[in-house]
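To: structure subgroup
Subject: Chain for Friday's discussion

All,

I'm putting the inputs and outputs inline so they're searchable in the archive.
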Amino acid sequence: MSNVIRWDPLRSNPFRELEDLGNRFTRFFDRLSIGRGNGGETMTVADWVPTVDIAEDENEYLIKVEIPEVDKKDVKVTVQEGSMLTMQGERKKEQKDETSRRFHRMERVYGKFVRSFMLPEDADEDKIMAEFKDGMLMVHLPKRERPKPKQVEVKVA
């Protein structure tokens, strides 16, 4: 008895099978919501994830989030429990009547997004600033000022 199955490229398409598997995962996670222990907020799964760059210099951390075609009023930046920075928003699909237009390809994603990051220990969450310009959200996380070493004079008896 043999467990080997001959692969027939005309009857089997591995890319279609992978696409089907990806669609199943997407549908599963779209329905998934995780409740918090306090019975309050529910975390929802995002429709897309914007790309970010995170940089650091001696004064601050800078998070740049690429969110083109997102309206400033649809973006929210929060700090939760003093340790989690969350950026969320929504890119809305144009409401124009597109019945006369035939699309050949649509790759842009619309819907809600969420990105969360743990704050570094030396970030001063009370002084966080965010600015939005030309499709870029820039979140500035100033560093706390480190205590300067104190010099104590030692007298020898």
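Points worth raising on Friday:
Residues 127 and 142 are 6 Å apart (CA to CA).
Helices lie at 14-31.

D.
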